Amino acid sequence: MLSLTTRLKIFLSVLAVVLLTGSFILYSKNNTTPAGKNEILIKALMQGLSTMHYKPEKVDDEFSKKAFKLYLDRLDFNKKFLLESDVAMLRKYETQIDDQLRAGSFEFFDISADLIEKRTKESEAFYKDILSKPFDFSKEENIELDGKKLKFAKDKNELKEAWRKQLKYQTLVRLADMQKQQEKATASADNKETRKTFEQMEAEAREKVMTAYNELYKRLDQVTRDDRRSTYINAVANVYDPHTGYFPPKAKKDFDIEFTGRLEGIGASLQEKDGQIKVFEIVPGSPSYMQGDLKPGDAIQKVAQGNGDPVLVEGMRLDDAIQLIRGKKGTEVRLTVRKPDGSTRVIPIIRDVIVFEETYAQSAMIDDQQKIGYIKLPGFYADFERNGGRNSGEDVKAEIAKLKAAGMQGLVLDLRNNGGGSLADAVEMAGLFIDQGPIVQIRTSSGKTVVLDDRDPEVQYAGPLVVMVNSNSASASEILAAAMQDYKRAVIVGTPTFGKGTVQQFVEIDEALPSQFDPYKPFGALKLTIQKFYRINGGTTQLRGVTPDVILPDAYSFLEFGEKEQEYALAFDEISPARYKPWTRSKLNIPAIQASSKSRVSGNESFNVIQKSGERLKKQADNTSRSLSLKKYMEEEKKSEVANKQLEDAQKNVPVLNVARLKSDLQAISGDTAKMARNKDFLKSLQKDVYVEEAVAIIKNDIK
Predict the structure, then answer these.
(1) Which residues belong to any copy of the PDZ domain (predicted)?
(2) What is d(CA 467, CA 699) in angstroms, rounded to the nearest whole number?
(3) Helix (H, G, I), strand (E, B) or coil at 505
């Protein structure tokens, strides 16, 4: 069984041999200008993937078909450029990608890039012609919004018709917004603005769509062949798993900036998926986190600078979209997003740097007949550089000590929307609640299993414990929740977690290549999956995540989200359990706890409304067809507004929990108006949190 370091050395030596063997093709005739950089790149990447990935793929015809499918989806997901005949021509290469990868050839890519560039140029005439004339919004017709359900057009007439519907829908959305704004303005007593006619608003809506597409095509003209090549390479890399990918030099630099948190912006991690730019994760303490409306799974359609005209980002390169979203502290960006249920919402966010206090563990005391401690942990942070920074494990330990001193009789640990972080801190934190023993198992591609243990016999807190999770709890959050569940130490409450049970590592290609290849650098980096997490009971957290003991209604739990929705995600599997002894100081009667909670939840009006909202969201998400009739569109929008209002009202009717910060925490922030304001918001949201209310009820009534 070879270690990662050994495999890296093998990778470097083999790579040098592979590349130098073919070096006779790497220079031009005058022997001064390097050539063949792309051939070096693809061979280096494929060698790294086959040598270092957790589960190397067999690069054969089946691999080729998978890469072809991913690439075709990303080339034209919404099927607005390529014709059926184009796809048939490209499909001739469906089983040849593997052969070309081994040869360092980009033949298929070059043909596809030439084709998409040609079709993109041709489509420019479509939108200009279509938007030059008014639309008839009284006509009964529909548009399919899900690219997976669409078919490629048979000819250019059919393609132009698809464009007509797309442009009509985008005009319809703007027209409906303008009508709603005018109605609100008319209702205002001091309104003196002149009402616009329907014809004027329709023309203005079309003009705005035209402007958006003019800007889009300017950016499409700037897409380079290397940009397209990165898309192709990542389609190949993503066959291994969705977290493995290639970062060109600029993309790697952007990633490093965002990872350090030094960038001023909105604090959302974005990814290209299904031809759209989607929110993958919200950074704790960021402007998006504080604003609260932007959620993982949202698709960003347009970006506006303050009250300026929005720019269409559908079909845009991810890094270009990010450049539009980024900006200076204090400036406003307005994101038009399509929610998973199909509704559209404009979300204003004031750009800022991360408020680091919001990323750290925070506690409060809930006084409800019993004193129940509450700790919110947004992420598993750590001082990796050992510069005197904070670690989440130590912080949670300190919060427990303060709550115990204040008379805590039960504890709620909130890991909702916690995307993970430091594995060492997850292990340390689990050790706060048990005597000692294994916490998580890690397996390498060689099959070697390493068990990470809590070796400290001291228990910081031995009382009743509830751990809250949801679909955005991932990685280290899942490890901690799984350990507490396997030890029967805590009741896990919420919705099934994300299901990311893998570990990634960056390999800098420039560092991996010997000095002979300096003339070709920079190449960028390869991020690849190298390990997999397993629970101490033997099952991996990959794909399935952690299923709570008590599952509570959640509107978004009805929607498709999580690792299981990623294409070619690594599978769930099991290994031998670790040796551990379940917690014996108290007994958890999970069936009785589930029955008691179910009885409370069924009689809770807020949870009933959440359940109905989830069912409605699921129905809307499944129905991806939309009417192009203005009347019908407005009716559907009003129905959604009513349903959303019902959900908001239900949240307002939640009994107010008696929540307070500890005196020491209040003293620490006294005099700082910004911190006091954030503290007020923290308590306000906690007081009306129906999920925390149920977690408290479980501790009070069900844990003996």
Answers:
(1) 256-326
(2) 11
(3) strand
Report the residue count for the chain. Answer: 704
176-212 residue pLDDT tens: 988 888 887 777 656 666 788 999 999 999 999 999 8
Architecture in CATH for domain 358-522+531-602+655-702: Alpha-Beta Complex (3.90)
Structure tokens at 151: 């078919």
Angle between helices 61-75 and 225-237 (to 10 degrees): 130
365 and 682 Cβ atoms separated by less than 8 Å: no
Q: Where are the domains of the chain?
A: 56-240, 262-355, 358-522+531-602+655-702
Give the Cα separation of 362 and 495 in Å (integer): 22
DSSP 450-470: EEEEE-----S--S-EEEEE-
**Inter-residue contact 241 to 339 (CB < 8 Å):** no
Sequence-distant (6+) residues with CB within 8 A of 456 are 431, 436
Residue identified by tokens 């599952």 is: 551
Task: Give SS3 for 19.
Answer: helix
Choose the catalytic residue: 43, 295, 500, 532. Answer: 500
Contact by Cβ (8 Å): 270, 279: yes
- Answer whether 519's CB lies under 8 Å from 466's CB: no
Give the separation between CA 314 and CA 317, rounded to whole angstroms.
9
Q: Is 302 helix (H, G, I), strand (E, B) or coil?
A: strand
What pTM was computed for the model?
0.87
244-268 burial, b at 16+ Cβ within 10 Å, e below that, comes to bbbbbeebbebeeebeeeebbbbbb
C-alpha span between 698 and 370 (Å, rounded): 12
The CATH class that applies to domain 262-355 reads: mainly beta
* Annotation marks residue 475 as catalytic: yes
- In angstroms, the CA 434 to CA 430 distance is 7
How many whole angstroms separate alpha carbon 496 and alpha carbon 487?
18
Tokens of 124: 């420019």
> Among the options 254, 486, 549, 554, which is catalytic?
486
pLDDT digits (tens, 9 = 90+) for 125-166: 999 999 999 999 999 999 998 889 999 999 999 999 999 999
**What residue spans of 449-524 are helical by DSSP H?**
476-486, 509-512
Contact 536, 453 (CB under 8 A): no
Is-contact 510 521, C-beta < 8 A?
A: yes
Q: Which of 230, 392, 422, 475 is catalytic?
A: 475
